[in-house]
Amino acid sequence: MAGKKSVATNPDGRKKHIHQKYDPDYHPQNYTKLAELGMSNIQIAKFFEVSRPTMAHDWVNRYPEFAKAFSEGTMNLEQKLKSALVRKAIGFDYEERKTTTENGIETKVEVTEKVCLPDANAALKALGRYNKEFWGDKEAEKDESAIGKIEIEVVTSANSED
Question: Model's pTM, two decimal places?
Fold first, then answer.
């Protein structure tokens, strides 16, 4: 009778699945980078060649280092979006550089100071997010009361027999 095969383990001693794709040196770091680029969990899971539930639930629950990367990646992206929204709302200055090259040699660099004017829509969005009582969308609040209600209309044929 053949002897029992030993179960392979990860470097930290946990049992390794036969088809396990998780790599503690690769997946946590790359999840954070991909999330910061704005990729959705579905896109990241496809990139890792696993299902979204495997990545978002199994890996998060099983591997603490991935759980940390998962929450940090989401928070980092959210923070970047908040910062961008606020910058757009209040406006900002920036430099635009135009470089001229001849025969592969940089001959001229033209620097232009530019201004991105404040955006009223971004300001309203930011205010609505930070002070919902005063700046929140009143129309959306009225419509939320209809959530969960379903109207059913029963249509019968005139030729149907009763």
Answer: 0.46
Please give the full DSSP string across the chain, using - where no structure is assigned.
Answer: -PPPPPPPB-TTSPBPPTT----TTTHHHHHHHHHHTT--HHHHHHHHTS-HHIIIIIIHHH-HHHHHHHHHHHHHHHHHHHHHHHHHHH-EEEEEEEEEEETTEEEEEEEEEEEE---HHHHHHHHHHH-HHHHS-HHHHHHHTTTT---------TT---
pLDDT in tens, 3-29: 444 445 666 666 655 457 888 888 888
The domains of the chain are located at: 21-89
Per-residue pLDDT reduced to its tens digit, 38-58? 788 899 999 999 999 988 888
CB distance 66 to 60 below 8 Å: yes
